[in-house]
Amino acid sequence: MKKVLFIMPPIGGWATHGVIKAPNQYYAQLAAYVRQKQSGEPFVVDARALDLTYDGIKAKIKDIGPDLVVLGDILHSTGGLAVIWHFNKIAQAVKEVSPHSKVAVGGLWYSALYRETLEENPAIDFVLIGEGEQTLDELLRKLDDAKGADYSRIAGLASRKAGQVAVGPHRELIKDIDVLPLPAYDLFPMEKYVAHTYWTNFCELFTSRGCPGGCSFCYEWSQYDPRFPQDFVSWRSHSAGRIVEELELLTKKFGVKTVVFQDDAFNVNYDMVKDVCNGILEKGIKINWVILGRADDWSRQEDLIPLMKQAGMFMGLVGIEVSDDAELSRIGKGVTVSQIKKTVDALRRNNIATIGTFMIGFEDDTEEAVKKRFSFADQVDPDIFALQFVTPVPGSPLWKKVVKEGLLDPAKISLKAWDFQHPVVPTKHLSVEEVGRLGSWCMREFFSRPHRIHRIMAGNYSDLAKLCVKDYMANISKFEAAATKGDLYV
């Protein structure tokens, strides 16, 4: 059986998030699948959690002697796309100490740019395009063949053939993702994970795939086959029973106390959310949780919020992004201003803290437009203001547009800054430097309101929510340093 090694580089995290370390969900799911199919023996080296240096990683590679090393991620919550630079560096390290080992990458960035990845990175042998489980299984079985095997017919795989990039046919989506085994958390140092510096015994979950929204800027575009963009908007979710089963495993076997459901739209299905909450309560699962949700879904599920609170939800994220319905429509958000306001108000009435995401750096942004957008966010008044700079991702409608209009040259991208907390593209009216300055101004303005901070810290919110606010405020200077000086944290 082939040895498969999954490596997480020794990286930092978003400037606003303090100390953040979570098990790589891409690795956890792939490892579980190949173990179930008995096509590979999986190993995980999480250098971030174990505080390993690159020399330490090289020693682990030599010790394990992997046949295949897999690199990549499906969540941008670690550090946006800046992690890609680190994965590329790990690929080079693998070839230095274990030349016989093959390297496969997948997930964010790589899926959308599979051809460019192989053309520009000789240390990378394969790209898993789109969902990687079945493709990785087939690749491992093919690795058993004689040297010089032809991989070009494996669906969902990009490889090299006679020195040229060869791409297999489209890999069909897994329609029922409940067929996948529970993530292989036993391969990870679960006691090491933390978020927002203070949330210990932490884990991120990814319980659905795709999104019914398809916003023009979404990071998820980059992890699907660009030949079939409809894959991204083909939303599929685990069943409530499967989600509750995973929560029970995390809490009772691994001692996890706090989770963030990183699905872009966890609460699409009313009945599923209701059944998850009831399942948590019926099984006596003690867990604190956060979800990311769309305002249109939140506003249709107001009656569920007390039940969600009872089941352990202490914080909810809602995308504000821009300031009016016309702008929301233009970026493909599919929600309205009234739905956003209604969501924040409903969560606050139930003592659930809110995170409002906010974006600047769209093509037509002016200083006046940004300040108008901030005024709207200030009026909506979430408890945490999570500003991100517009960062085009491969495969997205936004990427195609800015490349076509000359606002972005893919050949000149500095991946280390591609983390959503560094301005990376100008607008038609603002330079990159001006976008960064305005972002810093917005962050400081929002968190300088004494009444807001008092409401949060003296209110009936969970202590975890208050610690999160504390961490954000403590790191505003780091955000400013990234936005205006180019300081790197990922």
Number of domains: 2
Structural class: alpha/beta
CATH topology of the largest domain: pyruvate-formate lyase- activating enzyme
**Fraction of helical residues:** 25-40%
N/C terminus separation: 35 Å
Q: How many beta-strand elements? A: 17
Low-confidence stretches: none
Question: How much β-strand is present in the residues?
Answer: 15-25%
Radius of gyration: 22 Å
Number of DSSP helical runs: 18
For the biggest sheet, the summary is: 7 strands, mixed
Silhouette: globular
Please identify, by name, the CATH architecture of the largest domain. Alpha-Beta Horseshoe
CATH-wise, what's the superfamily of the largest domain? tm_1862 like domain
Biggest β-sheet: strands ordered side by side in the sheet:
2-1-3-4-5-6-7
CATH hierarchy class name of the largest domain: Alpha Beta
Mean pLDDT: 93
Domain B12-binding: 8-150
Pfam family, one: Radical_SAM
GO molecular function: 4 iron, 4 sulfur cluster binding; catalytic activity; cobalamin binding; metal ion binding
Cofactor: [4Fe-4S] cluster
